Amino acid sequence: MPSLSHEAVELLEDLIRYEVEDKAIPSISYALVDRDGLLAQGHIQRHDRRFDMKADTCFRIGSITKTFTSVAIMQLVEKGLVDLDLDVSEYLPGFQPLNPFAGRESGPYGSQISLRKLMSHTAGIVREPKSGHYLDAHRPPLADTVAELATSTLKQDPSAGIMHYSNAGIAVVGMVIERMTRKSYADYITENILKPLGMHDTSAGMAPGIRERLAPADMWTLEGDSPAPVFSLGGSPAGNIFSTTSDMASYAQCLLRGGFAPKGDTIVSPASLREMWTPIGKRPAGHDKALNGYGLCFGVGDMDGWTSVGHGGAVYGYASQMMLLPQAGFGVLIFATLDFANQIASRLAGDGLRIALAERGMGRLPLRTQIPPPISEDQLAKLPGLYRHEASGEVVEVKKKDEKLYLMGDGVPLQIRPVLGDDFVIDGRIYGRGADYPHMHVSFPASGGLVWNDQDWSRVESLAAERVPPEIAPHLGEYGPDFNITYLTYSHGELKCLIEYFCTHKCEPIDALRFRMRGLLYEEEVLELDAVDDTGRRGIRVGPMFLERRRTQAAA
C-alpha cells in the first residue's frame, strides 16, 4: 500500500496540531490519497478533549454533499435520462419560478432554469428555500421544499451567467434525481455511489447509529464555545451526508482515477468529470479569489500552478474541505469540528497536498508554523476601543477578550496578533495565513490611531446616541430559533442584519419595509420587515425564509 514517510506524516500532524491548540478546535481529522490508495489518515484532538476517535467516527461533510449530487446527475446524463440544458420543468412539471428579468435579459444564456445553471449556481434561485432551510430544524420532505420553490421569485437574471450560491437550487437538482429514478435521493446515492465504492459507514441523512458515531463539534462566539446542535437538514442534496475519513478517501480516490472504482467499475465517466470540472459563468465581486470558477457542484482553482478541484462544507460546528489535484493524482480531506473554521481547513488541505507533492519530488515542503510573539500588557491595555473613519463616519471596535484582541470589522470578529512592534496581522478562527481576504494587515501608529483596510481610523472615546428612524426602530431585535439567532441592529445610518452567528449584512432600502442585503452569505437577498407567516406569526423574511420575532424581544 502506498504511504507517506514518517517525517511527512509528522510534519502534517504538527501543522494540524498547532491549529487545533492555537485556535482551540475540538479536533481535526484528515486523509491523504493518491490514485492507488490511502497515503495517510489520522485524528488530532485538542489536549482537553477525550472522544474515542475510531475508524467509523463520522463527520458532517456539509456542502461536499453537492459533489455526490453532481455525480448522480451525470450518471443519469450518461444514460440519456436527462439533459443538462433543458428547462428543469421538463422533469418537474409546474416548476416555473417568477422571473422578474423576463423581457430584459442581461446576458446570452437564456431564461430557462436548467440543471447546468442550478448546479453552477447561475440560475438566479434564492440561497435558501422557504422550508428546509439552514435555520430550520424541521426536516420537510424534499418534494415540499421544491414545490415551494416552484413559485418563488428569482433574485438574479438566469441569462447573465453570474454565480450566486444557492442551497435551494441543489435541492431542485435532487428532486430531479428522485423523479427520474423513482427512488429517494438517499436510496439512489447509496445504491449507485456509496455501495459500489464500499462506503459502508456513510449515510445520506442521519441514519440510525450516526449520532453515536459523530465527532463532537462546537459553535462559538466571543462569549464562548458551546456544543453544536445536531439535527438532520432539509434539502438533503445540498449538504446532509455523514461520512468518515476512510470512506471519503475512497470517494476522492475514485475521482482521481477518472471515475473508476478500484476494481475497474465505472461510477462516472472521465468525460463527465471533465464537464463537471469546467468553470461556468462568472464569479461576482468579493468571491473567493482562490477559485478560478465553479463547475457542476465543484469549485475549480489553482494551487502552486496545479489545477485543483473540490468543495468545502460548513454545517453547524463542522468545517470540511475536499481538494483534489487531478493532474498530479493527489487528494486530501480535512474535517474540523468548529463552526466557521473553513479557512483553516482549506489552509491545511493545501499543506497536505504540498507535503504529498514534495514526497514525490514535485514541489517544496510547507514551512512549519511560526508562533507569533505575545501581545504585551501595554498593548492589551491601550489598544482596545473605538476607531472612526473620518470620511465615511464608519466606526470599528478593537475588543479585548481572554487576553486576545479582536478587530470587529467587516461583520465578523477578526483576531489580530503582533508581527513586530505595533504592526499586527489578522490570524484567528476565521481568517489567517493564506486567507483570501484583502485586509490582513493592521497597525497602530504612535498617534493613537488605527491603519486598516488601507485607511486611517482615529481613536474616539465615545459615540453620540444615534437616532433610529421611527419606521425601523420597532423591528430591531432578535429573530429565529435559539440555536441560530438573527439580529437586526441600526448603526452609522444603516440597518444591519447579523445572521448565521458572524455574518453581518448591510441593508439597502428598496421601499418602506424591504431592503437589499449586502454581505458574505445572503448577498442580494431581500429582507422584509414586519412579515407575517401562514399561521399569523410576526417576524422577518430573508428571501423566502421566515424568522419569527423572539418572544423576549416582542415583549420588550
Distance between the termini: 65 Å
Oligomer designation: single chain
Low-confidence stretches: none
Largest sheet strand order: 13-14-15-16-17-18-19-20
Structural class based on helices, strands and sheet pairing: alpha+beta
Number of strands: 28
Task: Describe the structure in your own words.
The chain has 556 residues and is of the alpha+beta class. The protein folds into three domains: 6-359, 3-Layer(aba) Sandwich (Beta-lactamase), CATH 3.40.710.10; 377-460; 473-555. 22% of the residues lie in helices and 28% in strands. The protein is built from 13 helices and 28 strands. Strands 13-14-15-16-17-18-19-20 form an eight-stranded antiparallel β-barrel. A hairpin with a 5-residue loop joins strand 26 (526-532) and strand 27. Helix 1 packs antiparallel against helix 11 (342-359), helix 2 runs parallel beside helix 5 (167-181) and helix 4 crosses helix 5 (167-181). The chain is globular and about 70 Å long. The model has no long low-confidence stretch (mean pLDDT 93).
List key phrases describing it.
8-stranded antiparallel β-sheet; 556 residues; 8-stranded antiparallel barrel
